[in-house]
Amino acid sequence: MRYIIIGAGAIGATIGGRLAESGHEVVLVARGPHAQALRADGLRLTTADGERVHRLPVAGDPAGLGELRPDDVLVLTVKTQDAIAALDAWGDAEVAGGGTAAQRLPVLCAQNGVESERLALRRFARVYGVCVWLPATFLEPGVVSALCAPLTGILHVGLAAGGADARARRIAADLEESGFGAPVVEDVMRWKHAKLLGNLGNAIQATTGPDPDPAKAALLLRAIREAKTAFEAAGIGYASEAEQTAARDGKVEQPAGVRGGSSWQSLARGTGSIEADYLNGEITLLGRLHGVKTPVNDTLRHAANIFAREGLPPGAMSIEDLTALADEAVARG
Known about the structure:
This protein has helices at 10-21, 32-41, 62-65, 83-91, 101-104, 115-121, 166-176, 188-199, 202-208, 214-234, 241-248, 262-269, 280-290, 295-310, 319-332, and strands spanning 2-6, 25-29, 43-47, 50-54, 58-59, 72-76, 106-109, 126-133, 137-140, 143-146, 149-150, 153-159, 180-181, 252-253.
């Protein structure tokens, strides 16, 4: 199989680089200065066992790669706000022997949130969810670090619509020989909904900075409580904390001093967009559909979007000010 990594940022480049290290064929999809750096100098990937440079094929779009192969696996690692454009572009690409990628090829949604699987299922016949536990950093073109050990990350894999199949098991085997844990599960979206609860803090980290603070933890707990109430009203299950701990403990230890997560990095790179609409905004959506008030999550979504649109630096707001905005939203009802 050839893995086409659509969005070779922190997560995509780490997955692609590690797959390439273990002998798998990989193409990185990137644009702008990042693509230029990858072509000129290769991918400089640092993991717990050192830094390596991977010189891999780089494409900006399907046209730059040519006709796709029947054994291609598309790995979608763009942020969810960019998923529709990527799915449409790659879904229409022709595959050797006839048909399009959307008709014939598998697509793996290796992203935060739970919306990309739904977007992909509208377009692709073979959609897999991937629950990503993979702390990684991409702040400089061509340079990515993922320092967890002994595993680089854990990637639960399963069919987005439920269940698992031989292809999921084969992909998981490739990931496991590449330094990842890759449990094949029948209920991957249950794991992704559990991951979403933790990702509700991305907006807090992005707007107030990555340093730990009891007030930040308290605000995140309020957001999680709203989310759990919305999940219950919607009839959505999620993996328990005990299940997640059992899956992770002793396998993905992160060294001290690692900076912020994906949303913080989006602001630090000045991308102009952020994934809050598909993290906190997912909870807001569920709340509105099922009669649950979610003022804390809507406040976090709104604040993160303002930071992205106005180009504010990450961490420019105090946690006291952000908490006050949430309190005002709660008071308004």
